[in-house]
Each structure stands twice: as C-alpha cells, then as structure tokens.
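Narrative summary of target 7.
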Amino acid sequence: MKPNDTIRWLLIAAAVVFLAELVLSGTGVLIGIGMGILFIYIGKRQLSGRKGTILFCLGIFIVGMSLLQSLAFYLVLTAGIIYYFSKIHDTTDKPQAYQPSFDQTTSGEQVFEQKSLFKNSWFGAQSAGSTVYEWQDTNIQSFIGDTVIDLNYTVLPKEEAVLMVRKVLGNVRIIVPYDIEVDVHHSVVYGSIAIFEHREQNSWNKVIHMRTKGYQQSTQRIKIVTSIVAGKLEVVRV
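Modeled conformation, tokenized:
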C-alpha cells in the first residue's frame, strides 16, 4: 500500500474512532478541549502578566491531556509521522506547479470543463509561478502545507480576478506585481498577517479587509480571499 493510501485510511479510521468515542464515552474529550481552548483564549487576550501566562499554560495542558485520551489523536499522529518520513525518503519531492489545461468537453448546455490551476490536497506544499502560466480564477483548500502563488508569471485579465485559499495549518504567500491593485479579505484563528506594509503578529480570531488605493479604478485587479486556522498570510510585491 502506498504511503498516501495509508494516510488516507488512517484519517478515515480516526474519524470513525472519534465518533465512536463520542457515542461510547460521551462528550468528555470535547468538553476538555473546549475548556482548554477557553483558558488559552482568556489567558492570551483577557489577562496579562503572570495570571495570563498561568491560565494560558493550563489551557495548553488541558488540551494536550484531552487529546492523549483519544485514540483518534494517535491515528492522526501516526498518519503525520508516515507522511513526514515518506517525504524524507522522497528526495525529488518539490512543490508542484500545476499548469492549466484547456481541454474542453462540450455538453448540450454548452458547459466547458477546464482543469484547475491547483488541486485540493491533504498534505504537502503547492506553488504556481516557477514557469509562465495562463491565469484562471482559483478556489483551493488544503489541510497541512504551504502555498506559494507568484502572479509575476501570469497576465491577469482586464477585469477583476479572484483567488480564494482555505487552509487548516500552513502559510500562504502571494506575490503580486507592482502594477496590479489588490483587495484582500483574510480570516485567521491564530497566526500572523503581512499585507504589504501592514503587519500583525500572533493574531487571534482575526478578520481583516484591506484594499489598495486605486483598486476601484484599475482595469487589472485581483481579489484575494483567504482563510487559515493556524498559519501566516503574506502578500508582497517583488
């Protein structure tokens, strides 16, 4: 069985085991995790000094102990270990740049299918921009891994382009040409934000909307919509 197949079956088993644990043992694990997250939030945002640090550490301890009581956690951990060592042994592993293919399949309704620039992924890095590619609006999501998109290698249309990225764990880096206006909608549970000169560190439960000055008047502009549970968003011009 290939490593990717093993990881997939372990994640499915983890989901089944987690549901079984909820049915057989009640919501004890969820309550523990919920209390721990609450303590972490209060310690980080509501309290300062020694009391906040103690409550923050107590929350991390409670979450950790709750996870250690769940068999589903060990299955997910095993999947992560298998993925990590499979990448170590694969010396050719690099982020893949997916090039769009415009093979079209016509139906009676005149609907055309095009392969996406990216593919959704559970694990691993994704990138676009190592070679020239033709732009198409993009909507992707992934579980763990970094995503890098360099818009210097494409030509945006004379209209509003759309880029949407949703991620659980990992960083998103978007490189924008100097002559392109940008509108950014970003949502993060915990992470850092760097949108041109605007920077925020260790943001909690943050929603931010930023737009360059000439966005409304520009003929070439891109709307970037990102959502990350834990990780960093970086939008830069190079």
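The chain has a mean pLDDT of 75.
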